[in-house]
TrEMBL record:
Record lineage: Bacteria, Pseudomonadati, Pseudomonadota, Alphaproteobacteria, Hyphomicrobiales
UniProt keyword Thylakoid, yes or no: no
Signal peptide extent: 1-18
Keywords: Signal, TPR repeat
Name by which UniProt lists this protein: Uncharacterized protein
UniProt cross-references to InterPro entries, sorted A to Z: TPR-like_helical_dom_sf (IPR011990), TPR_rpt (IPR019734)
TPR repeats: 91-124
Length: 177
């Protein structure tokens, strides 16, 4: 029993990362961004665009849509879909609220969302990376390095959050997904 608990504890940081997004590539456009408008999400079952608040949709589907919409630069729709998530205080929801705020020029509000995401889950490597990228943009490279060290200390070496933040620190270029 102790071995199971120890194994689970050691794997938790990577599971937390997976809850964010372990995908290192930009989201591929789907019908959500190709066909649907105004925060609607493509429903594979009905093959139609449905309101993000549709009860049939689960939060993982909504989260994938948020990521895709944010990457496409449709921040208004991304915010609408985020508002449909069942737990507004969940770390990945707070992370993407922060991302959208930062990308729309409200870095100070974005930072508060990242801090809330990390309070909810200190092992949220994606929130640490996005927060660090925001710090780079605002000129706080030392603060970004603190987040990079936290990512590495929490088992995130050679993951997308670590690589993206290191790139931002080295080049000043941040990611859009």
């Amino acid at each position: 029993m102790r071995l199971v608990a120890l194994t689970a504890a050691l794997m938790f940081p990577m599971a937390a990362f997976a809850a964010g997004s372990s995908d290192s590539s930009p989201p591929k456009p789907t019908e959500t961004t190709k066909v649907c408008k105004d925060g609607k999400i493509w429903d594979k079952e009905t093959k139609t665009c449905v309101d993000a608040k549709e009860s049939r949709l689960d939060d993982d589907t909504r989260y994938r849509a948020v990521r895709e919409l944010a990457y496409a630069g449709d921040y208004r729709s991304a915010l609408y879909v985020l508002s449909a998530m069942s737990d507004q205080n969940e770390s990945r929801v707070l992370t993407y609220y922060g991302f959208v705020q930062r990308k729309t020029g409200r870095a100070d509000i974005g930072l508060k969302y990242y801090q809330a995401a990390l309070k909810a889950n200190p092992d949220n490597l994606l929130a640490r990376s996005y927060m660090g990228q925001g710090l780079v943009v605002s000129g706080d490279v030392d603060g970004a390095r603190v987040q990079l060290a936290e990512i590495e200390a929490r088992g995130g070496s050679d993951t997308w959050p670590e690589i993206a933040l290191r790139k931002a620190i080295d080049t000043g270029t941040t990611e859009s997904y």
